[in-house]
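Letters spell out the chain; the tokens describe the backbone. To illustrate:

===
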Amino acid sequence: MNSTLFDYLKKSPLFANFDPYMFQILEQRLIFKELSAHEFLFHEGEHGDYVAFVLVGSLDVLKKDLKLTTEKITKNSQNFIHIGNIKQGDTIGEMALIDTLTRSATVRASETTALVLLTKKDFDNLLSDYPRVAVEILRGIAILLSLNLRKTTENLSRSH
């Protein structure tokens, strides 16, 4: 097992309860991806079929500017509102493992960024072949969603 990858991913709440054996099973299913600065990982409205974990670099989370007409918005346009950053150790797209809805935002590298991806297909295979590993991933997703909801609630309470 690649101990460096283990060390990176262990910092994520998604994998906080993973032991070395579970990481070994997971590692066999991860896909490495590198993005150049300003390269898109995915676009709002696309079908989501993987979760991404940032190893090095950072990503910008963008939403379409709804003030513009649909005809003016293109995948490569600058017609976005910046809504957040994803940094080393963070995940993006975890809902793609649970639902079949489209991506809710556009994600673009703000610098050269290295990621590992887990596809929905591989996650589904983990569910059937290694349910303990998949359950820990689901538990991690629940923790991430809870943290995000708490953060959103706090931000909303501050804005009023």
